[in-house]
Design a protein that fits this description.
The chain has 195 residues and is of the alpha+beta class. It contains three helices and nine strands, in the order E-E-H-E-E-E-E-E-E-E-H-H. The protein folds into three domains: 54 residues; 90 residues, Ribbon (Umud Fragment, subunit A); 34 residues. The strands form two sheets. The chain has a seven-stranded antiparallel β-sheet. Strand 1 and strand 2 form a beta hairpin.
Length: 195
């Protein structure tokens, strides 16, 4: 049963109605939609707050040099790190000295003074050519979420943005129109039976 209070001309009407199978589906879709909306809002809040609170940032992986550890199109979660604490075997994010692109590779050697590093992608046969200055390290890789980066990249396109807005918006409008139509039919039923 679903209980709802409707305000009509200053008085409250209590409506108790047994759900029919179609009603169960509508209720399930409503709860599913609300749950999905809550997850999206929580995700957006996390993305907005995480960098400040936890020293985290996110990067979409654009290459395959770290396969199979980090897959192309994954969303990599990276934390701020003091370069003095980086060890051989750590995966770090840095601005590549040659290209200035943000790169994520594994540290394979550290200079004795701890002021430069040698890095290599797991899928590469040789180390990166230029030594990496400690000042170029942006963070240490924590984990990645496969395929999420591809979805985020798509959401930044015109079609992705329209889809992200139109589908949920259209679903909410459709559910509300169905709810209004159902309520109007329910109000008309007693009038039709009394005539």
């Amino acid at each position: 049963m679903i209980t709802a209070n409707l305000v009509n001309g200053g008085r409250r009407l209590s409506v108790l109605k047994n759900l029919r199978p179609r009603g169960y589906l509508a209720a399930a879709l409503t709860w599913l939609g609300m749950g999905l909306l809550a997850v999206c809002v929580a995700g957006l809040i996390f993305v907005a707050i995480a960098p400040r609170v936890f020293g985290l940032h996110m990067v979409i992986v654009e290459g395959k040099s770290m396969e199979p550890t980090i897959h192309y199109g994954a969303l990599a979660i990276v934390k701020d790190v003091n370069p003095a604490k980086v060890k051989v075997g750590d995966v770090v994010e840095f601005n590549a000295p040659e290209t200035h692109w943000v790169t994520t590779h594994r540290v394979v050697a550290i200079a004795a003074d701890h002021k430069s590093f040698t890095t290599r992608g797991d899928a590469n046969n040789s180390a990166d050519l230029a030594p990496l200055p400690a000042s170029d390290i942006r963070g240490q890789f924590l984990f990645s979420i496969p395929e999420v980066g591809i979805a985020i990249r798509w959401l930044h396109t015109r079609n992705g943005l329209l889809t992200a807005v139109l589908i949920p918006g259209g679903a909410i409008i459709l559910l509300e129109l169905l709810s209004i139509a159902k309520e109007l039919r329910r109000r008309d039923e007693p009038l039709a039976s009394s005539q």
